[in-house]
Design goal:
mainly alpha, 10 helices, globular
C-alpha cells in the first residue's frame, strides 16, 4: 500500500493527504465534545504537555536533522541554512503572534492586534495559529522527496503521524472551551474541526514552494522547525504549567518527546 501511494502519486498529493490526515485528527479531538461534559485541569495539563513534547521531538528529528544533512550538499558552510531558517521560522511566528488576534483560555490572555472580536473567534484563531507551522512542516517534509525515496517517505509519514497524535488534544482544546462559552455541542465541534483547516492548505503550499525552489529546501525544513518550537515555548508549555500540576506537565512533555523520538528511531 505504501509503495503504491509512493509511486503513483506526486509529492504534492502526498502532502495533501498528510495535511488532510492531521486535519481529521483535529476533528477527532473536537468530537470528544459529544462524549464528555468537560476536561479537568489535570487532563488538560497532560494533553498540552504531551503535544508539546511531540512537537519538540518532531522539530529536531524530522526537520532540523534532515535540514543539516541536506545543507551538506550546498556550496556554502553547512550550518548556515539550519541556523538562518530556524531563526526566520521563529520570527515568522512572532510576527503572526503579534498580528493575529487570539485568546488563550488557560492564561485568560488576549494577544494580537486589537479589535471587536468575541472570545469564540479569538480562541479558534489561537489554535489555528498553532496549526500553521504544523501543516507547513508536513508539506515541506513530503516536498523534500522529489525522487520518491522510500526511507524519506516513511520519515515524512512518521512526522505526519506524530503531528496527528498531538492534533487530537488540540481539537479538544477548542471544542470544550467553546462549549463553556455557551456554544452548542454541534457548533463547538464544527469550529474545533475548522481550526485545523489551515493544515492541508499550508501542507500543499509548503510542498509546492520547495518543489519550485530546490535550493531553499534546507532553509524550509529548519524554518518549519523554528516555527513549531516557537509555538511550543511561547504558548504550549506555559499553558500546560498555568495551574498547580507543573510536575505533571514536565512528565507529559518528556513522554511526548520520547514517543515521537521512538517512532522516528523505529521507522526511519
Amino acid at each position: 500500500m505504501i509503495d503504491y501511494i509512493l509511486k503513483n502519486f506526486s509529492t504534492h498529493i502526498h502532502s495533501l493527504l498528510a495535511g488532510l490526515f492531521i486535519f481529521f485528527a483535529t476533528a477527532i479531538g473536537a468530537s470528544a465534545i459529544f462524549f464528555f461534559k468537560k476536561i479537568t485541569s489535570r487532563i488538560t495539563t497532560i494533553l498540552l504537555g504531551f503535544s508539546a513534547g511531540i512537537m519538540l521531538a518532531a522539530s529536531i528529528f524530522s526537520l532540523l536533522l534532515p535540514s543539516i544533512e541536506f545543507s551538506r550538499d550546498l556550496n556554502i558552510p553547512f550550518f548556515i541554512p539550519p541556523v538562518v531558517g530556524f531563526l526566520l521560522g521563529g520570527l515568522f511566528l512572532k510576527i503572526l503572534d503579534r498580528t493575529i488576534p487570539h485568546f488563550h483560555i488557560n492564561t485568560n490572555q488576549r494577544e494580537g492586534i486589537s479589535g471587536n472580536f468575541n472570545k469564540t473567534i479569538l480562541l479558534i484563531l489561537a489554535i489555528t495559529l498553532h496549526n500553521i507551522p504544523e501543516g507547513l512542516a508536513v508539506g515541506v517534509s513530503f516536498g523534500a522527496n522529489p525522487l520518491k525515496d522510500l526511507q524519506l517517505f516513511i520519515g515524512s509519514m512518521v512526522l505526519a503521524l506524530g503531528i496527528g497524535l498531538q492534533d487530537i488534544p488540540e481539537g479538544a482544546s477548542v471544542s470544550f472551551p467553546l462549549r463553556s462559552f455557551g456554544v452548542s455541542r454541534k457548533k463547538s465541534f464544527i469550529f474545533g474541526s475548522l481550526s485545523g483547516i489551515v493544515e492541508p492548505i499550508f501542507a500543499v503550499s509548503g510542498s509546492l514552494f520547495v518543489s519550485f525552489f530546490r535550493g531553499i529546501l534546507p532553509y524550509a525544513l529548519s524554518f518549519s522547525a523554528g516555527a513549531m518550537i516557537y509555538v511550543v515555548i511561547e504558548e504550549m508549555i506555559p499553558e500546560s504549567q498555568s495551574n498547580e500540576h507543573i510536575d505533571l506537565s514536565t512528565i507529559s512533555v518528556m513522554v511526548g518527546f520520547t514517543t515521537m523520538m521512538f517512532l522516528d528511531i523505529i521507522f526511519t
